[in-house]
Write a structure and sequence with these properties.
mainly alpha, signal, Glycine zipper domain-containing protein
């Protein structure tokens, strides 16, 4: 009559086998369904004292369904994290390529051009560009243009150890 200890012994025996890693991997949904089904079957058999077989079957089905749902949720979260990481790697690769091309263009411009064309590479709203571009007598060279009222050139662009290392401009704090 009292078969519950034999049932638990069978569960422990089946779960204690050392399965080699070379075998097929289970999906999170399958793992959740199996674990939930076993736990639900055990709980159902314990709860339904009059008919333990029916309680085990009902508990196993309910536990398997709940376990499958939990496994699916875990798998979706893992896929979202992987997609976000891939997107961040792609953005970082594009930014690195842009910086590399910008550095190559600056090197080519500095070796083959004159001072007037070098200032064309400096952003138009930086102080150095406004000083070089303003050359008439009506506007003094020291007065910055109106477009650079909120930004400063970033001399440490590309250096991660400085603040604003990923931005060509620094925001004024006043």
């Amino acid at each position: 009559m009292n078969k519950l200890p034999y049932f638990f012994a069978l569960i422990i025996l089946l779960t204690s086998f050392n399965v080699p890693k070379a075998q097929a991997q289970w999906s999170p949904q399958a793992k959740g369904a199996v674990i939930g089904g076993l736990g639900g079957a055990a709980a159902g058999a314990i709860i339904n004292k009059r008919n333990r077989a029916v309680g085990g079957v009902v508990g196993g089905v309910a536990g398997g369904a709940i376990g499958y749902g939990v496994g699916k949720h875990i798998d979706n979260k893992r896929k979202q994290r992987a997609a976000a990481a891939a997107q961040q790697r792609a953005v970082a690769a594009r930014e690195a390529e842009y910086r590399r091309e910008l550095a190559l263009a600056r090197n080519r411009q500095s070796t083959t051009t004159t001072r007037t064309t070098q200032t064309a590479l400096v952003p138009a709203n930086s102080l150095t560009a406004s000083n070089a571009m303003v050359g008439n007598a009506m506007m003094p060279a020291a007065m910055p243009a109106a477009s650079n009222a909120a930004f400063l050139p970033n001399t440490s662009y590309g250096d991660a150890s400085h603040p604003y290392g990923t931005s060509e401009y620094r925001r004024k704090s006043w």
